[in-house]
Amino acid sequence: MTAPSQGLVAERVTVRFGGLTAVSNVSLWIRPGELVGLIGPNGAGKTTFFNILSGTIAPTSGTLRIDGREFAGRRPDHFARAGIARTFQTPRVFGPMTVAENVRFGRAFAGRRADHNPQVPGEVDDLLAFVGLRDDAEVEAAAITPARQRLLEIAMALSTRPRLLLLDEVAAGLTEAEVQRMAELIRRCRDELGLAVVWIEHAVGVIMRAVERVIVLHHGELIADGPPGEVVRDAAVVEAYLGAPMEVAP
Amino acid sequence: MAPMLEAWANVIVSGLIIGGIYAVVAVGLNLQYGLMRILNVAHGEFLMVGAYLTFWGTTLIGTSPHLLMPAVFVVLAVTGFALHAVLFRPLARVAPNPEVFEARGLIVSFGLMFIVQNAALLAWDADLRGGQGSLEAVRLGTLVVNGDKLLACAIALAVGGAMILWLRLTLVGKAVRALMQSPVGATLVGIDVRVLHPLVFGVGLGLAGLAGALISTFYTISPSIGQPYTVTALIVITLGGFGSVSGSLIGGVLLGVIEAVGVELTSPSLKMLLSYLVFVAVLIARPNGLFAR
Amino acid sequence: MMRAYAPVAVAGVAAALLPGLGSPYVLSLTLTCLMYVALATSWSMFSGATGYISFGTAAFFGLGAYVCAWTLDWLPWPVVILGGAALAAAFAAGTGGMILHLRGTYFAVLTFGLAELVRHAMTYGEKQYAGTVGRMLTEVPSDLVVYYTVLALAVAAVAIAVAVRRSRFGLALAGIGADEQRAETLGVPTRRIKIAGFTLAAAVAGGIGAAMAVRWTYIEPLAVFNPFIGLQTVLIAMIGGAGSIAGPVVAAILFSLIAEYLRLQFPYAYMIALGLLLILSMLYLPNGLAGLWRRAGRVNR
User: Fold this and answer.
1) Count of C-beta atoms within a 10 Å radius of residue A98
2) Using one digit for the tens of pLDDT, what is the confidence trace for B219-262?
3) 3 state SS of A70
4) What is the pLDDT of residues B22-54, one digit of tens each?
5) Is C186 in contact with A95 (Cβ distance < 8 A)?
6) Domain for residue A2, yes or no?
7) Could you report the predicted ipTM of this complex, rounded to two decimals?
8) Does B283 reside within a domain?
9) Which residues does chain A have within 8 Å of residue C174's beta carbon, measured at their own beta carbons?
10) N or C: which end of chain A has fewer CB within 10 A?
11) Helices C168-185 and C190-213 meet at what angle, rounded to 10?
């Protein structure tokens, strides 16, 4: 296989904070339209890795290409305009604005041109309907429930009309029924909008049922990458999840 | 010693001495900001009040200014405690998030600055007072040092050292340090912020008053001396790092020496330009202080 | 669309007719009002929207004033004003790139320090190269020219604020104020937007500085770089409600009137009152006057 030119390719990506190595030498390829789960014990470097993929943190070393173009070290708005959208672990919506205004925001910036993904609807109404927030359109974002803010976060990410959606623990704290609906929504993002999705979740079970490919980070290193069925049997993964020091967050 | 070398030694020593005083000027403000995110820009005004209390105390009662210092500290500490209860606690209650509290707290302390400074002008008019000093010059080898400044510096360093010990050894001090590092963690272990915040705000004001008392023993005072000291304190804190007491001590001494050497190399009219240059440069390049990793 | 500009137009026309009707005293009072309207409105346009509280207005104002002092004798008046705006804007653009990565209190004290640094540098520079600290202005334009210049700048400032608020640029500024990092991940080039907003606000302040400079016959750094100009701008905008456009305008007018009556007769009492007002407004009216009538509107509905 030749070097991949479509999608997102990380090669030997490393991030160090002072003496601490948060992400170490990670290489992977996210292909267009893939639904990928990213798991790992506490402190594995999952969120840090997301921060790299969305430009929030520049890698200390390594390369990061989007459709063949180098993006390592560029600012988050470049990533957004290149078709990479993300959510945050704790929803970060614009509290004083209405739900509709929150979605209009991304549409006005990274989502202004549809050249990266015309499949994502451009109308704010359609986006709200897609995530199921149409009734809340004129409500202040700060006033809706945290679970609905999660949905709004996804609508905001979609408003940039991305090709790759990075979801950071969007199912955390939801009820069993809500988790089911969330998993369904995420699948629809891929099936109906043609997005590649990388989904971080702390709860391994949810991910294993929902995705086709699982990436496992442990102590900042990539220890497994494959279909869920194979990954659960991987010795290194089992070790990481069952090993004694796992509950200690750094 | 060669005359040239001796002149420079004099410059450095006077810079060190004034730097020691700068340190105590800054420590109180730094504690307040480090713990509560209140950047009290009226700090210098309370320093000025401390200087006046000392001046009037010595003039009216006729005691030594040094004996009055504990009283000045207590008066201003109580004032600070009350101000926190009346102003900053309600402010913290209504602010939606820490960032907004910080902005509003800054504006409130600007208001305090106007009030205190102009109340002082009303009460004491703009005349220069005091500043004659009472001690003989001290000879250190071949160096001649202003005795009042030397004593003030010694007291300032003793107070700074006491602050460090207080923070390291006492339960309250440990609580303050814990809170500076992690507000959430510290509340979890049962530290009562409702007592600690006004207490530390009071200590901050008390230290400002003490610094003013020290300064009044060798400089003339007027209601407008406060603001430049606020700036001095800000520069020192920037040099030493926000929230670090030992950083402030080092930063103060450093600024004293930088100023003394800079002025010696250029001209006294450049002192303020130089101070602001250091301030702006450090804040741009190393916003967490020179010694931050 | 027209509704927002209508009050501006009405007020502008009224102010434009004033010289024919009012006494010189009223005119000079209105001039002060207009100056603070322009400063507070342009300040709110950037700092109010983004939360980057700048105490640096004095630097922009002073630079504008010095451009006036340097060029008044040999350049036409409009060019002098534009020159003042241009130098202030250039300074803001240059420093903005260095300081706008700092947030909150750090940014606030840094702008204050920067303004003071410029003042001291100007004092030193003028002493070195011109031999004196101050400059005399001999041939100054008539009061009427100054009045209409400041009026035009004030109207421009308000019009800019309204236009910005309705634009993508304004939306970007608001996004930075609400959550800068989030705005960036939604595609806002935050760095460029911040520098542009800071620069635009500075240009207005620089133009005002150039126009108001002729009100002093003697220009010196302590007067035109007076940190109080920066402070008062922040106070007016905050008390008016930095998130709105009408709030700072109303507050600017109120302030100029109060200042006029109190400042000369009871300077200390004026400053004490100002301080009290600031504290009370932060405690009881944190969204400014604008918050007050927004609340009233909600009750009436």
Assistant:
1) 16
2) 889 998 998 899 899 989 988 888 788 888 899 999 999 888 88
3) strand
4) 999 999 999 999 888 899 999 999 999 999 999
5) no
6) no
7) 0.89
8) no
9) 94, 97
10) N
11) 140
